[in-house]
Amino acid sequence: MNPSYAFIYDDFLTDPRYGDAVAALETRLATLGLSGQIGRLTLFRSAKELVEHHVHQGAKTIVLVGNDNTLNKVMWFLPDLPVILGYLPVAEPTDIATLLGIPPGLPACDTLGARLIETLDMGKLGDRYFLTEAVFERTRAKLAMDDAFTLSLPRGGDMALRNLGGVSRLGQSMANARDGLLEAVLVPNREQPLSTRILKRLSLGEDNETHVFFKSGTIASDSPIEGHADLFAVSGFEFKVSVVPNKLRVIMGRGRRVGVLGNNQNNPNHQ
Asked: Where in the sequence is the domain holding 196, given as residue range(s)?
């Protein structure tokens, strides 16, 4: 057993229908010499407490076994830990796995064994990290960015703050999680004007979407607003939002689609 690895299984994998898939996965890992500590997420134990326990036991690589929802259970705190993230997708949804170039099932073990380590930015909403995006639907909130300009949706609409985003129509990530910026996307209610006060860069996309890149800002509203950072529900009157560059170290596949890789594309960090 390699104590520097900790494999964290999602609780849904206890369902008998996943028994064969998990057994095959473990056999492949053993063949590759990949073994380590075992932890299991449950309804009655904090995911943060479980992961931190394994880090204190010497784990340097935390491997999540499950699906994209498993990532969301730990991503809000994991970037602050001195670990590398691995991911073995067993069941749907696997959109994030696709962006990271990690195939579902047994081939994911080979990706883990290859240890192609890349670094991604993380978004931060309040004290919570998010990998994909923070979304506020049907809101009239204002977004003040970089102390330079403010965007607002006075008649309502949707606001997304993307770090990696989801999978675009072209199969790539919707945002570049390696550029040191977040992308704000504001979509007013259909056929209603978007009122903005702009002192800096602004570009308008299709369907009257507004796209702006920024590093930090504040979302504020006179009435409570509700949204999601990754899949975690948030609510309040005001949120600080920012990007934290190069915060997450993650094992990816060679078919990764996380945006422009720049100079690191030719010099991957193998460890």
From this structure: 125-245
